[in-house]
């Protein structure tokens, strides 16, 4: 089932998510719904807070980055890079920081160059609650770092400089008010009631 993606401005996107255990209700369905939602929105990663769930879970399928896209050179190592990460912990981020244009399904129509370390070592539980630890580089590392930020209550725009943030203020306010057109279902923050 496709779930609505939570738009910028919703408090769930700013909350540090909680760990879950194997008894989390309907976990397999939640994971399947998150993949379906991500594919429908043409994303490569989706964190649980983006569908309104304050839990430490995200899904990734970086295969779209494996193909050459005209002027963009593809990364064949991402062809089968599909993962479910539960209760992940970034052990270390290393390597030179490099820039890449990032976007976010919760912040549609905005993409900006974000600097991130080129390597990440991450420990997590897979969908069978088996512990995994993997060293990632390049785009795979970036996607994991972006989604990890979501479960920490952070967004890619937090990594931008003050001038860039100021220039995006109007667009961000429009998104939070639902004044944006996207090809997928979104849930916008409810305006605060006046007393």
UniProtKB/TrEMBL annotation:
Name under which the protein is recorded: Peptide deformylase
Pfam family, one: Pep_deformylase
CDD domains referenced in this protein's UniProt entry, alphabetically: Pep_deformylase (cd00487)
The enzyme's E.C. designation: 3.5.1.88
Family per record: Belongs to the polypeptide deformylase family.
Catalyzed reaction equations: N-terminal N-formyl-L-methionyl-[peptide] + H2O = N-terminal L-methionyl-[peptide] + formate
SUPFAM superfamilies to which the protein is assigned, alphabetical: Peptide deformylase
An example Gene Ontology molecular-function term: peptide deformylase activity
Classification via HAMAP family: Pep_deformylase
Record keyword Metal-binding present: yes
Binding positions for Fe cation per the UniProt entry: 104, 146, 150
Cofactor: how and how many bound: Binds 1 Fe(2+) ion.
Assigned keywords, A-Z: Hydrolase, Iron, Metal-binding, Protein biosynthesis
Enzyme active site: 147
Superkingdom assignment: Bacteria
Species name: Sphingobacterium deserti
Signal peptide as annotated in the record: none
Any GO BP: translation
Statement: the UniProt record of this protein carries the keyword Protein biosynthesis: yes
Cofactor(s) essential for the protein: Fe(2+)
Function: Removes the formyl group from the N-terminal Met of newly synthesized proteins. Requires at least a dipeptide for an efficient rate of reaction. N-terminal L-methionine is a prerequisite for activity but the enzyme has broad specificity at other positions.
């Amino acid at each position: 089932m496709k779930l609505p993606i939570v738009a910028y401005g919703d408090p769930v996107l700013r909350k540090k998510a909680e760990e879950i255990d194997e008894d989390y209700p309907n976990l397999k369905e939640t994971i399947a719904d998150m993949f379906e939602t991500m594919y429908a929105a043409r994303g490569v990663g989706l964190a649980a807070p983006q569908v309104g769930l304050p839990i430490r879970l995200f899904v990734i399928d970086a295969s779209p980055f494996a193909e050459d896209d005209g002027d963009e050179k593809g990364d064949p190592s991402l062809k089968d890079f599909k993962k479910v990460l539960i209760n992940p912990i970034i052990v270390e981020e290393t390597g030179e920081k490099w820039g890449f244009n990032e976007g976010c399904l919760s912040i549609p129509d905005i993409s900006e160059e974000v600097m991130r370390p080129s390597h990440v070592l991450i420990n997590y539980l897979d969908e069978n609650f088996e512990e995994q630890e993997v060293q990632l580089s390049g785009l795979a590392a970036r996607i994991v770092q972006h989604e990890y930020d979501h479960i920490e209550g952070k967004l890619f725009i937090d990594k931008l400089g003050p001038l860039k943030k100021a220039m995006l203020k109007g667009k961000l306010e429009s998104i939070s008010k639902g004044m944006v057109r996207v090809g997928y279902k979104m849930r916008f923050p409810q305006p605060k009631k006046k007393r």
